[in-house]
Predict the structure.
Amino acid sequence: MADAKTPDVIDRSGTPLVEMRDIRISFGGIQAVDGVSIDVFPGEVVGLLGHNGAGKSTLIKILSGAYQADSGQILIDGKPVTIRSPADARSNSIETIYQTLALADNLDAAANLFLGRELTSALGLVDDSAMEAETRKIMARLNPNFRKFNVPVSALSGGQRQSVAIARAVYFNARILIMDEPTAALGVHETAMVADLIKELKAQGLGIFLISHDTREMLDLCDRVSVMKNGQLVGTERVEDVTEDDILSMIIMGKNPKREAA
Amino acid sequence: MTDTSSDKSASSGRGGASRSLFSQLELDLRLLGMIGAFLLICVLFNILTGGQFLTPRNLFNLTIQTVSVAIMATGMVFIIVTRHIDLAVGSLLATCSAIMAMTQTSWAIDLLGIPLGSPALAWVAIVVGIAAGAIIGAFQGWLVGYLTIPAFIVTLGGLLVWRNVAWYLTSGQTIGPLNETFQLFGGINGTLGATWSWIAGLVASVAAVLALVSARRAKKRHDFPVKPMWAEFAVGAIFVVAIMGFIAILNSYQIPERVLERQFAAEGLEVPAGYTASYGLPISVLLLIAVAVVMTVVARKTRFGRYVFATGGNPDAAELSGINTRLLTVKVFALMGALVAIAALVASSRLTFHSNDIGTLDELRVIAAAVIGGTALAGGIGTIYGAILGALIMQSLQSGMAMVGVDAPLQNIVVGSVLVAAVLIDIIYRRRVGG
């Protein structure tokens, strides 16, 4: 599919949707992220690649508000923003779909979709019927086969749970989506469904950061890839400029053979 | 509907004609099991005591004995659902009781100049007691939530600390008799009488039916599937019969003649020939019902309650959803503290005095009530009505054995064993229904 990709149509001349500049964070003396800068433009998917412990998840958790950087800047539409908590990230239209599927297993799909942002009635009480109705609407769009609205999400399959997590991001009109291994727990068919969804969201103009270990999947879905090693950025490349082998040597050796040669 | 995971998974997934009678009624199987266990205990003890157990008098006593533990059990549900534990409730009850007793017999009189015997003393004592309970609870919650000391340790320390704070406050003395207005919350000294009890029952029945109607309307408005009409009527009828039956039982407990004579003599009158009167609904039971309704609404219909269950189900997910789980812990423990203070009001006014050993071993009864009532120690699952039923089951076991004449050590051995067995049954049940 990589060869069928249309030439780069993303306009990267303007201001990036998100820019993370010179981000640093350390845990107990270990520099987990060491001066990394990445950005994403509207309608673009940027993949983050690297070994376990390369710092991808840590970097992205700074954007989603789970961690706070020791230094560095985050700009949205060119304006610096402060993200101290997941709530700050959400108020900047950043939504995250976590590797571990951040769902409360004992609650149903609607309660999870609206967790932290419940719809309330005039009395200030949570309006379960309204939330279920909204959940039915969004799921009809994302996953029409979804029926299990009244059971705890622990009773759902991996793909169904993932669609709840994605519905949460889509429902609240995210402009920036962070997906940490969104297909890691899924079967082939469900993986394809998530891939289609990513393409649709991209077409709607969202900026997406995607983390995955599957290099081939990344070359299919992403417009650019940023490779990290030992907390540092090895480089960011447009996918049409690199081969899978180039990416692998960036991941493993920490350098791009083509650039070295040039 | 966050806390009824088991009945939902049981009633969904199958559609059409194969649905069983129970699933059409959408009744909670666990609830039915607990009611069954309670009825079994009642019938068993009634046979063993030769019909003494199921008398209006004993049922009246049973309800007023259950109130204190049941009120605390509703708070313990939230504590356990958020994966914590509170071992200090019995001792905190003693501290709250001591504070309320000292306020009405000494502090408020000295500081505010309220005359002894004034009803205002009772209200000042209640407000001070509940505030103290909430503050102490919040402090323990802060130690757990912000300083990340395990709740087990914080409240194990609290078990010792608050028992002896109570002792210190009262210099180890028994404080009483308590204010007469205060004593209205104790049970037998404050009841509604027959007429008001019937009115309370009617109001409760109407409220229950209205709740069913509004739930059905909300579902219809969004075109969700609803129960067949006959099932709605059946559930409504069960509610009304249960409420009015309960009132009828309480109302059939007549005030003994010599008590009536004393009451009339106090006003310089004679008891008219053939005059009878009923105790009716105790104010303490009314208080428990109010607490149960409020706590159920909090659990199911407020954001706070939703976050309590979400945090119990997956603390990381709750935090990533922007929920301040640390502050939530403080709030949950503060709520527990306030409920302990309300329980202290009921317990001390039932005795008509404050004593040093008040609330001893209540932590065990409260935790047992919550757990027997289906609160999962792993967190995330539990119901308010379950905890209250659990408290009622525990109390009827204890009262029944006392009436039969079982030795005290044997009573405790049975209660302890029942707790363990109940958890085992719960584990097996959950495995079956996949909850």
User: Anything to note?
Assistant: The longest strand of chain A covers residues 30-40. Chain A touches chain B at residues 64, 66, 85-87, 90, 96, 98, 100, 102-108, 111-112, 115-118, 120, 124-126, 128-130, 132-133, 148, 150-152, 155 (CB under 8 Å). The radius of gyration of chain A is 19 Å.
